Amino acid sequence: MARRTKSPPKSFLAQEHKFDSLSKSLSSLGLGLSVVNRDMRIVWTNKVLSDAFGPPEQIYGQLCYQLYNHRSSPCPNCPTMKAFQTGRSGFHSVQRGFDKNGSKKYYKVTTSPISRNGKVIEVLEVVQDVTREVQSKRQKQKCECQLKNVNSRLVCVNKNLTSKTKHLGRASQKIENLNKRLREQIRDKSIELNIAVKELTTVYTVSREVISTLDPQEVFPLIAKIVCSIINTKACILRMIDKKTKMLAIVSSHGVSTKYLDNTPLKLGEGLSGIIAKTGQPTICPRIDKEESVRYSYYINREGYQSAIGVPIIFNDEVLGTILTYDESVRNYSKTDTMLLSTFASQAAVAIKNAQLHEKVHLNYLNTVNALALAMEARDPYTHGHSERVTSYAIAIARKIGLSGKQIEIINRCGKLHDVGKIGVPDKILMKPAPLTQEERKIIQLHPLKGVEMLAPLKFLQAGFPLIQHHHEWFDGSGYPLGLKKTEIPIVARVFSCADAFDAMTSNRPYRPKLSFKKAIRELEQNAGSQFDPCVVRKFVPLFKNRDFKVIADA
Question: What is the CATH number of domain 10-129?
Answer without folding.
Answer: 3.30.450.20
